[in-house]
Amino acid sequence: MLDFYDAIGETQMFFFSVENPFSKWADHFSVHDTLHGLCGIIEKQTRNEFRKIKLSEVFVPWDEDTMQRAARAKRRTKRTASVE
Prior knowledge:
Layout: H1 2-8, H2 31-52, H3 55-58, H4 64-83
């Protein structure tokens, strides 16, 4: 799953984004820094969990008979569409 996550190309974690509406109050207000740090922790944990999930656990390949039936059905659909 980590490969899929990385392939998306999003640099920020997909769960949420942290913007700092309090940048003028940086000396008095640390919520943004706390949330930003928390976001980094969650990102690391997510990447570690995704690294553990193998494609074989979330995708069951079709057997040969199923693949052949799907190919025949696709050919029939194309022929029907071209006749109309």
